[in-house]
Amino acid sequence: MEQSVRTRQYWFLVYHTLFFFDLYASKSPKDFAPSAPFTASGLHSDIDKHERIYSKEEMVAYLDHGRKKAKARIEELDEKELLEPCNFAWVGVTNAELFLYNMRHVQHHTAQLNQIVRQELSKGLPWVFKGSR
């Protein structure tokens, strides 16, 4: 079944958000490789440069992967490392600030996704106080 342009945009935005969540939970860009079946196409902002749109189930699995990876990364850093510059030169922040940067990026796109749902369904999503996992 052919997906509508709006549906493709929605799932592309989900993928973009999860891709960068995964990337910024890495020690450095050199150490990063998205887990299968995902590819580095997440670096492209043009939806037409992507091989396909991933399923909801694949996205949920990618979210779980990112959560575990970010938690492990946080747990491995000591105070000294938290204050050191992160290895993502284009961001220009410390390792500690990178977690805030990553969180703001996720929140920004979560708001966009919620707006799309509101526009398409004329109904907002319920407030989520905290994750279920």
Give an overview of the whole structure.
By secondary structure, the protein is mainly alpha-helical. It has one domain: Four Helix Bundle (Hemerythrin (Met), subunit A). 54% of the residues lie in helices and 0% in strands. The protein contains 4 helices and no strands. α1 packs parallel to α2 and α1 packs antiparallel against α4. The longest helix has 27 residues. The protein is globular, with a radius of gyration of 16 Å. The termini are far apart. 14% of the residues are buried.
Give a topology summary.
Blueprint: H1 5-24, H2 56-76, H3 79-82, H4 95-121
Short summary of the structure?
Helices cover 54% and strands 0% of the residues. It is an all-alpha fold.
Characteristic key phrases:
Four Helix Bundle (Hemerythrin (Met), subunit A), mainly alpha, 4 helices
Radius of gyration: 16 Å
SSE string: HHHH
Main sheet specs: none
Number of domains: 1
Mean pLDDT figure: 86
What is the CA-CA span between the terminal residues? 32 Å
Number of helices: 4
- Name the CATH architecture: Up-down Bundle
Dominant shape? globular
Low-confidence stretches are: none
Given helix and strand content, the structural type is mainly alpha
Helix amount, in percent? Answer: 40-55%
* CATH class membership: Mainly Alpha
Q: Quick one: how many beta strands? A: 0
Under CATH, the topology is which?
A: Four Helix Bundle (Hemerythrin (Met), subunit A)
Fraction of residues in β-strands: under 5%
